[in-house]
Amino acid sequence: IVAMRLADGVGNLHLVSLGGWCGPKLAFRQLSYLDGPSLPWDWGRSTMDHVILMLRTDFAGFLDVVGRLETRWAAHGMCHPHGVICATPGHTFWHHDLFDPKDRQVLSRRVERFRGLGRFSPLLFVRAVITTLELRRAEALLALLRGRF
Fold first, then answer.
1. Can you give the pLDDT at residue 33?
2. 3-state DSSP call for residue 124?
3. Which one of 51, 79, 87, 116 counts the least CB within 10 Å of its CB?
4. Which residues of 23-44 are buried (b: 16+ CB within 10 A; e: fewer)?
5. Beta strand 123-126 with 2-5: parallel, antiparallel or unpaired?
6. For 60-99, how does the pLDDT look when each residue is reduced to its tens digit (9 = 90+)?
7. Strand-pair category, 14-17 with 44-46
């Protein structure tokens, strides 16, 4: 889903990834003049329902771990340098260890950054859907974004 908010038609475009996977943020980086600081859904995998729930609850439970997997993928740059993937309901963190206080602090700052996006204009929200079934929830997501920003 791509939704755009133009307050007065001027200013710099601010790109905001609503996840799915890391692809949107990686694309923003290729457009370096449009890339900005990392936000909550930039570096993980998330369901549309997770994004909607986090918007509705102001990120309540965003860092509530339900699982942790140790892998050998770190050598390939696919996950946290220690080979850890952490899961919360509807989201997996491939590049952060939620048991590390420093990583939790980094992610908390990203949530705060997202909360402050309303002061920027225009905003362009980008979501990479995981499955076409998520398109059924696009209107609900758009309504939440319009209400918030």
1. 67
2. strand
3. 116
4. ebbeebeeeeeeeeebbbbbbb
5. antiparallel
6. 999 999 998 888 776 676 666 777 889 999 999 988 999 9
7. unpaired
Give the pair of three-digit tokens for residue 114.
């997202």
| Amino acid identity for residue 98 in this structure | L
Residue of 10 and 107 predicted with greater confidence? 107
- Strands (E) located in the chain: 2-5, 14-17, 44-46, 67-70, 84-88, 91-93, 123-126
| Residue at 139: amino acid letter | E
Q: What single letter denotes the amino acid at residue 115?
A: R
Angle, nearest 10°, between helix axes 48-57 and 138-148? 30
- What tokens does 76 get? 């390939």
Question: d(Cα 79, Cα 130) in Å, to the nearest integer?
Answer: 19
Question: Whole-angstrom Cα distance, residue 83 to residue 131?
Answer: 27
Instruction: List residues bridging with 126 in a β-sheet.
Output: 2, 17
